[in-house]
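Justification of resources, computational component.

The compute hours requested in this renewal are based largely on the per-chain cost of generating structure records like the one below. Each record pairs the submitted sequence with a full structure-token output. That output is archived, and it is also reused by downstream analysis tasks.
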Amino acid sequence: MIKKFIKGFWIGMFFVATGLILFAPMANAEELKEGTVITAANLDEMKSKTFEGKTIESMLSPMLESWIRDWALKMPLRHSEPFPLDDRWMALTKKYSGQVKLTSDKRNLTGFVGGCPFPEYQTCFGPITDEAMKDPDAALKIVWNTQRNGGYPRGDLQWVPDYEFIFINADSGVERAQEWGFIVLHMQGRLAGEPVIDDLIYKKNPLFAVKPYDIAGLGTFTIRYADGRKDDVWAYLRNFRRTRRLSGGVWMDPIGGTDLLQDEIEVMNVHPSWYKGYKIIGKRHVLAICHSKRPSIDRSMKGTEGYLGLDHANFPHWNPVDA
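The structure output for this chain reads:
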């Protein structure tokens, strides 16, 4: 029996994280229309055709192709849309990015105040050039962009009061769910008022369980430092009504008995120096769920009916229902 954990909130994030990759379209290949649905039945026929000038084959990772063939994923095509960019974030990037540099040991930044640290590695400012890709620190700079509001600006405060972990059995469907919430208060790279309100602390982050009753109230509070020292973390143990300090290494531990690790929140939730290194293996366009037109969950509906983002009625019960 195959069991799979999935959380609707992360579906789009997973695809976006897979890359930025560029391929030349095939000459005279048929251009597919918006609304075309790629399925296991027509995948081989579709791979040589193009969408927005790029072949379907070039935009499918091996994992996505396997998902279509083996796990009944259907991919309705929709045209790309531009990402709206905050004018304040753009202004901070223009004002401060020129002074941002990696430290001599490549483990931190100097000169960061706000905006995107390395805009030459962020595609909303234009394609990443071949010359930029030759920089031996290119991968590290891309990672720093994701960690300092450059990958996607998060603003000053993220308040996500409810999201769900949904535990799904491929044979029988949804087995159980957990409702969680989190808050992230950014102390640097802020968009309102002064960009930096604490030189030492980068962010503060409560993470807490809401439902079901047996885990409600369980949570952690994390302080992430800007200089790479290990986090300060406390846990609240609801059964004992006590807080306990945890190791600074919990960033690699799972959340709530799931297979989502702390460092996988929002794709990569670490200080970049905690990994030995980074490497770019290529750049490409990929088919991804972005600008979703529907909510993931409708809490006014009962049970699995409320999981609007998932095809919970059909095998394997975790496929996204989106374009």
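The longest strand covers residues 173-186. The chain has a mean pLDDT of 87.
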